[in-house]
User: Which sequence fits this backbone?
């Protein structure tokens, strides 16, 4: 059921992009319906998956991918109309690519590795889409605010990418400074062998000088 909700949002991505690229009020109304459905499915698919016990890393990745395609499609449609700067959808695509590469290839994780700033950005990417639709439906006073939000998201997306790059570099530096597991294992083996080899020597030194201990004398 959760994947069905996510799939519905994914199917809406292309029609929504086309509606955002169009300039009429009718298209804006349809875009508002598509945006509302996308937000509703995004809010529901996670809780539904957890309630049904079907939550998984693959489902989480599918959810993120659907959000990404829906948002980038809508921002690109708005950029075609000239209401959004093209740099925002380009940066969102670059940030998502970095997100995937950093999680699966650099850190070798089985799930996406989120960041707090990236999560906030993912939520706020819907704001200029909704603002533009409202402006097309008559609330033209929102247009300057939408433009300001777009440039704010450009700055926060760059900051998020820089933060992820910095954390990745720090993690790689800590991993290279740490000795490999093989070396640690060899060191522990050498220490154990040293302890074993020294035990007979300690027993020998602990014996009294003179005759060596004869077990036959213990019987009398």
Assistant:
């Amino acid at each position: 059921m959760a994947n069905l909700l996510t799939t519905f949002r994914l199917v809406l991505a292309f029609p929504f992009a086309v509606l955002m690229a169009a300039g009429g009020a009718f298209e804006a109304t349809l875009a508002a319906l598509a945006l509302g459905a996308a937000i509703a499915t995004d809010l529901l698919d996670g809780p539904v998956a957890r309630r049904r016990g079907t939550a998984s890393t693959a489902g989480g990745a599918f959810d993120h991918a659907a959000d990404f395609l829906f948002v980038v499609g809508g921002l690109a449609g708005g950029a075609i109309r000239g209401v959004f700067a093209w740099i925002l959808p380009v940066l969102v695509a670059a940030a998502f690519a970095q997100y995937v590469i950093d999680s699966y290839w650099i850190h070798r994780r089985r799930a996406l590795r989120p960041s707090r700033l990236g999560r906030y950005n993912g939520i706020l990417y819907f704001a200029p889409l909704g603002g533009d639709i409202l402006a097309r439906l008559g609330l033209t006073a929102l247009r300057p605010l939408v433009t300001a939000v777009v440039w704010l998201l450009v700055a926060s997306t760059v900051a998020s990418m820089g933060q992820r790059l910095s954390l990745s570099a720090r993690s790689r530096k800590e991993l290279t400074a740490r000795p490999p597991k093989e070396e640690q294992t060899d060191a522990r083996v050498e220490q154990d062998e040293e302890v074993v080899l020294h035990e007979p020597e300690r027993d020998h030194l602990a014996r009294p000088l003179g005759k060596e201990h004869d077990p036959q004398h213990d019987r009398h």
About this structure: The longest helix spans residues 143-177.
